[in-house]
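Appendix B, Record 12. Input sequence as logged:
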Amino acid sequence: MAVQKKNENALTILDQETGQFVEVTHETQRLASYVHNQVLMGAFISAVSIKKIFDEKLYLGLNCGSKDEYCSTMLPFGIRQAQRLYQIANKFDAVSKSLTGNGLIQITSGDTLENTTLMSHDLNANELAQLGMAKLYELTKLEDENIKDLIKEGKTKVADHELLIEEIKDASAKELSKIISETTKKYKSKISQLTEEVALLKEEKNSIEKDFEKLQAKKEEIDEIEMQYGPTASLLADKKRRLSNASALLNEFVETFVKAGVTDEDPESIRRDVQDLIRRIDEVHSRCSSIYDTVILE
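Logged structural output:
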């Protein structure tokens, strides 16, 4: 480990994670020493202190160039346990910020070093803070909302099981692990079941929509056939609908006929088709006039 001392108070140390030399002030060294002492206390305060040491790289102030070196030389436990403690702190820190807007721990240096945590302000939270590392680690498997409920209400609903702080305190870490595992397994199973039901409902909905579209198309086809070959309309609404359809068809015919753009320079066969169509128009006009002669006379 490369260490250079620039003066009596400051410490310059190689940050092994960045490869850069970093100058650590005397104040930061004092803070690092204080937080490190907290790491050696109970599980919860160890967790939040390790988080601070890792996040702010305070291990540099303890002549350690990396987290691994800090864990291997300064702690009575290994990197795996330190990582579990860090995970515990991250979980409770997120819940703390959600509840109060502040993190779990604010440690400052000065004439007096102070340690303040979320756990000092709430009875249920204090109860959780007294748990050992194994139980705290099991609680990280719960959702943030469950942890909030435990802090605010002293209980939380996990699947169909109501988990109480008293139950957590009385149970062994193994028993707590079993309770959480079984209840979360039921919860996940219920989620899986609901997901399958939603998928089936979507499939059924899509099938119904397709059947509806087919029926709608069939109805339109039937309406078309009825309009052409069915009995004469009797209801006023039906009469108006058929006249509206006839007008739309006539407009479409006229547009199509005009846009054919036949001229006297086109072949005789095409010009003859135009003549035949005009004759048919005249026939349609005569037929309609005959059918509706009384209407036209009015």
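DSSP finds twelve helices and seven strands in the chain.
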